[in-house]
Amino acid sequence: MFRKISNKIVLITGASSGIGESCAKMFYENGNHIILCGRRVDRLNKLKDQLVLNNAGGKVFACQVDVSSMDSIDKMFNELPEEMKAIDILVNNAGLSLGMDAVVDIDARNDLDSVIDTNVKGVFRLTRKILPGMIQRNSGHIFNISSIAGSMFYQNGSIYCASKAAVNAFSDIVRKEVVSTKIRVTNVCPGLVETEFSLVRFGGDSDKAKKPYIGIDPLTADDIADNIYYCASRPEHVQVTTIEVMANNQASTRDIYRDQV
């Protein structure tokens, strides 16, 4: 059953594209206040303008932030208007994968640090920053965007799989630590979602980036945002702990049926 939630303050990382952008649109269109966070401030401002043009009644604040840096996160919070600091919903969406190398070939200085600093430390840092306020108000909802790769491991995906396994564990632990409160924690594990994810993974090579989605109708960013909004809109006593969602012809990270093309 559809339930509308409104007038909530929603902070979304990685909001400049993909799942983050779709979440921003979904929550704003239903009358919520949105904090757009990301590194590409030009895209954030463009999205802000689009949202405000829709005039759904909520406030929109765009802020450049790199979740791999605690200083950047602190700066972002210092810049937030006072009326938007009591965050009701946190969507830890910022994340990436770089390359498809075997462990022996991984760039352990750059790729390893970039993925872990963003996918793992970023989730820890944002949650640590926002959770005390949620505990004080005895309300809030944290969404951590993980992946089926966090439990369905595959060759040449060691850093990414490990990072998402860490997100899974972190989500479970935080949920247990706030069990005496009204705070909810939802771990979101998508399968194939056609966004800029593969373009980043393959260093901007558009031909390589298209290959994972050939012959299958993949999920879209809007599909994931729809699932997230559904969980957020459940009655207060209902907590959806984990969402594992895949395209219809996908059964795991590697078990995929593709039409012959």
UniProtKB/TrEMBL annotation:
<dbReference type="Pfam" id="PF00106">
    <property type="entry name" value="adh_short"/>
</dbReference>
<dbReference type="GO" id="GO:0016616">
    <property type="term" value="F:oxidoreductase activity, acting on the CH-OH group of donors, NAD or NADP as acceptor"/>
</dbReference>
<comment type="similarity">
    <text>Belongs to the short-chain dehydrogenases/reductases (SDR) family.</text>
</comment>
<dbReference type="InterPro" id="IPR036291">
    <property type="entry name" value="NAD(P)-bd_dom_sf"/>
</dbReference>
<dbReference type="InterPro" id="IPR002347">
    <property type="entry name" value="SDR_fam"/>
</dbReference>
<keyword id="KW-0560">Oxidoreductase</keyword>
<dbReference type="InterPro" id="IPR020904">
    <property type="entry name" value="Sc_DH/Rdtase_CS"/>
</dbReference>
<protein>
    <submittedName>
        <fullName>Uncharacterized protein</fullName>
    </submittedName>
</protein>
